[in-house]
Amino acid sequence: MTVSESMSRLRAQREALVEAALEHVPFDGWSKQALIAGAEDLDLAPGEIDRLLPKGTGQAIVTYVEMTDRKMVDALDALELDQMKIRERIAVAVKTRLDLVENHKDAVRAAVAWTALPQNVAKGLKLTHGTVDKMWIAAGDTSTDHNWYTKRMLLAGVYGSTLAYWLDDTSEGHSDSWAFLDRRIGNVMQIPKITGKISKAGQFAAAPLKLGAKLARCMPTPGRVRRQFGG
Question: Which among 14, 83, 121, 178 could bridge 52 via Cys, Cβ 3.0 to 4.6 Å?
C-alpha cells in the first residue's frame, strides 16, 4: 500500500468514526463520550479512537467541517453555476452548505461554540476561511489581488450571520433563512461600491465569532442533556 493509499484509508476511517459519533453529539456534545459511543456503534476497539483522532474532540470537529466542505464542493460541481449570476452562485453555495448539515443542527451548534473558546478561535477562523474559500472557488472566483481577501472576509460575514439565523429558524424549508441570506448578500454587494474599503467587511467577518461566543455560554456541559432525557 502506498503512502497516499494509506492516508486515504486513514481519512476514510476517521470520517466514519466522526459520522457515527454525530448521532451522540446532541446528548454528549463534542466529547470523548460521543466518540466512544460512535466507536461502539462501529464495533471499534477503544484504542482506535486515539489512533484515528490523536488530537481528540477538536480534531473530530475539524474533520466534520472539512468533510462537509468536501461534500459541498462535490454538490456545487454538479450544478451549472456558470449559468448563474455571481449573487445567485454565492446564495446557492451557502444554501448547499447548510442543507448538508440540516439534520445535525445540534452538532453544528456545539461545533460553533467550541470554535469560540479562546484557545480555539484561530482554528475557528481557519475553518471558516476554508469553507468560504471553497465557496468562492466553486463560484468561479479567479481574483488574486486585494479583492481575494475582501471577498472572503465579506462572505465569512454573510455565511456566519446566516448560520446564526438558520440555527434557530423553524420556518418551512428554512424559507426565512434564505430570505435573510438574500438580504445579507444584497447588503455586502454594495459595500465596495459605496466605500471602496474593507472596514465594514471586518464587522461582517466578526459574525461567526460573536455567534460562537453566545453559543459557548449557552451550551450544556457534556452529558447534561443525556441526564435530562434519562439516557
Answer: 14
What residue ranges do the domains of the chain occupy? Answer: 58-220
CA atoms within a 13 Å half-sphere pointing along the CA-CB vector of 164: 19
Q: What is the CA radius of gyration of the chain?
A: 19
Grid cell digits, residue 78: 454538479
Determine the Cα–Cα distance for residues 160 and 123; give it in Å rounded to an integer.
Answer: 15
**pLDDT tens by residue, the chain, 231 residues:** 787 888 889 999 999 999 999 999 999 999 999 999 999 999 999 899 999 999 999 999 999 999 999 999 999 999 989 999 999 999 999 999 999 999 999 999 999 999 999 999 999 999 999 999 999 999 999 888 888 988 999 999 999 999 999 999 999 999 999 999 999 998 877 755 534 444 444 454 455 555 555 555 554 444 443 333 333
Which among 71, 75, 109, 105 is positioned nearest to 92, based on CA atoms? 75
Class of residue 32 by CB neighbours under 10 A (exposed 0-12, middle 13-18, buried 19+): middle
Sign of CA dihedral 17, 22, 27, 28: positive
Element (H, E) at 91: helix 86-99
For residues 32 and 117, what is the distance between their CA atoms, to the nearest angstrom?
A: 18
Give the phi and the psi of residue 46 in degrees, each rounded to 5. Answer: -55, -35
Convert 164-190 into a string of H (helix), E (strand) and C (coil): HHHHCCCCHHHHHHHHHHHHHHHHHCC
